[in-house]
Amino acid sequence: MRKFFGTDGIRGRANIYPMVSDFALKLGKAIATIFKNGNRKHKIVIGKDTRISGYMFENAIVSGICSVGVDAVLLGVLPTPAIAFITKSLRADAGVVISASHNPYYDNGIKFFGPDGYKLNDELELEIEKLIEKDNFDLSPSNIGKAYRIETAIGRYVEYVKSTFDRDIDLKGLKIVIDCANGATYKVAPMAISELGADVIVINDKPNGFNINDGCGAVNPEKLQGEVIKNNADLGISFDGDGDRVIFVDEKGEVVDGDYIMGICANYMNKQGLLNNSTVVATVMSNIGFENSLKREGIKIIRSQVGDRYVLEEMLKGGYNLGGEQSGHIIFSDYNTTGDGLISALQLLKVLVKSGETLNRIKKFIEVYPQKLKNLPVDEKVPLEKLSKLKNVIDEIENELQGDGRVLVRYSGTENKLRIMVEAIYEDKIDMYIDRICEVAIEDINKNKSKAE
Fold first, then answer.
1. Which of 124, 207, 268, 395 could be cross-linked to 50 through a Cys-Cys bond (beta carbons 3.0 to 4.6 Å apart)?
2. CA distance 196 to 309
3. How many helices (H) and strands (E) does the chain have?
4. Which cofactor does it need (predicted)?
5. Cβ-based neighbour number of residue 408 at 10 Å
6. Residue 452: is its pLDDT beyond 60?
7. Is 231 within 8 Å of 175 (Cβ atoms)?
8. What architecture (CATH level 2) is domain 10-150?
9. Is 244 marked as binding a ligand?
10. What is the rounded distance in angstroms from the CA atom of residue 441 to the CA atom of residue 444?
């Protein structure tokens, strides 16, 4: 079992173990050791988002990589999917991302891509952990790598992203508000979308190391909703801190989440014969109404557990080319190896331009059930199978729903939170159900803390 890696790399509070510079130094040594193969010169690319601790971790990881004889290529601030793309484009041995995605500035994380641009599998992550704990790296005065920065990474990525947008159309005539979350998309997103012809209004594009995701971005769409209405814009686009997820706001100020984005794009792709096996991979969090709406269009839904790595696993297993999460992590595998907010945004914009419809109108065929999500902070993630009272109350509520809704309770893979999701046809009952679950969950977790293994 992995000790440090979670569902999306290693993540935690900066300057609190394991997110400390000493540990990052060992991580750099470990990733370089694993991907060294033969006598040729090796290189690993490193990119980051805009949080203040990124500088500290970048320097530590670079030191570790160079100390075992591998070159470190610094990309600077770039979205996570751009780092995956550049890893492949530069034929690097691996890619390193320093980011905590949608978390606040005081958190940070480190994750890796292999030479193919895909996230590392569990076995490789376990191998990295073993090397770190062993801490016996092959260091030699005559075998030290160099570190250098490349200035072309942003341009390479923007040009590639634009190439996924059909050449016979453009975005002229569209007024678009872009919320960059003071994060990694603050340069690339406005550049790509304006170069395709849109009239762009940009908000939250002045990162200072502390304001990433702070009341902005894909997790906090309220300001974007207001700006779309105030500017009489056609739509708004909001990215998270590392640019691997996206949500939209339509011309009426309504949020258009990942379910809608996947649904609209899947329906278009299916009609064009471009949706592999007429199938979309979604997670257990996706709305049941989204699934039913796509079924009516002849599209099958396969569900994975939460996390874009599990979505991708199902996609690769079945040969599917579209999958994602309600939160806005969407994978168009024809174009990239991971969730890519900017590419996803352009795919939806392409459908809008070709259809001539507004976003509010084109989303109407997807009829979602009312759904609410509550994040309950917990001190300790007591295994759910130990929480018998919680299980009983979930069973009771699902019996009361009689198939007209569902309950999903799980721990976050990246934070100390219990996520409680309730869907029901009748919205007025949802808050009551969530309150019942929260009350029992708190009691059951507190009671079982000392029994947790």
1. 207
2. 31
3. 14, 18
4. Mg(2+)
5. 16
6. no
7. yes
8. 3-Layer(aba) Sandwich (3.40)
9. yes
10. 5
Whole-structure pTM value:
0.90
**Is 101 marked as a binding-site residue?**
yes
Q: pLDDT class for 427, splitting at 50, 70, 90?
A: confident
> Residues of CATH 3.40.120.10 domain(s) within the chain?
10-150, 156-363
The pLDDT, as a whole number, for residue 412 is 87
Instruction: Count CB atoms within 10 A of the CB of residue 142.
Output: 5
pLDDT tens digits, 13-42: 999 999 999 999 999 999 999 998 766 789
- The CA distance from 432 to 439, in Å, is 11
Q: Which of 16, 33, 7 is nearest to 128 (CA)?
A: 33
What is the C-alpha to C-alpha distance for residues 90 and 81, in angstroms, rounded to an integer?
14
Phi, psi torsion values for 196, nearest 5 degrees: -85, 5
Euclidean distance between CA atoms 348 and 395, whole angstroms = 38
Q: Is the pLDDT of residue 283 over 70?
A: yes
In angstroms, the CA 266 to CA 271 distance is: 9
Question: Alpha-carbon torsion 208, 213, 217, 218, what sign?
Answer: positive
Taking alpha carbons only, the member of 163, 167, 161 closest to residue 185 is 161
Task: Kindly indicate the confidence band of residue 450, based on its pLDDT and cuts at 50, 70 and 90.
Answer: low
381 neighbors 416 (Cβ within 8 angstroms): yes
Tokens of 69: 């004889």
Instruction: Tell how strand 405-411 and strand 371-377 pair up.
Output: unpaired
CATH homologous superfamily, domain 156-363: Alpha-D-Glucose-1,6-Bisphosphate, subunit A, domain 3 (3.40.120.10)
Residues of the chain with CATH 3.30.310.50: 371-450
What are the residues whose beta carbons fall under 8 Å from the beta carbon of 379, sequence distance 6 or more? 416, 449
What are the tokens at 137?
């790296």
Q: What is d(CA 238, CA 54) in angstroms, rounded to the nearest whole number? A: 22
AA identity, residue 38 = G
Enumerate residues 6+ apart whose C-beta is below 8 A from 180: 186, 189, 190, 202, 203, 204, 205, 217, 239
In contact, 115 and 70? CB cutoff 8 Å? no
User: Up-side HSE of residue 327: CA atoms within 13 Å toward CB?
Assistant: 20
Question: DSSP for 257-296?
Answer: -HHHHHHHHHHHHHHTT-SGGGEEEEETTS-HHHHHHHHH
CATH fold of 371-450: TATA-Binding Protein (3.30.310)
Q: Which of 204, 207, 203, 217 is nearest to 54 (CA)?
A: 207
In the block, residue with structure tokens 């978390």 = 103
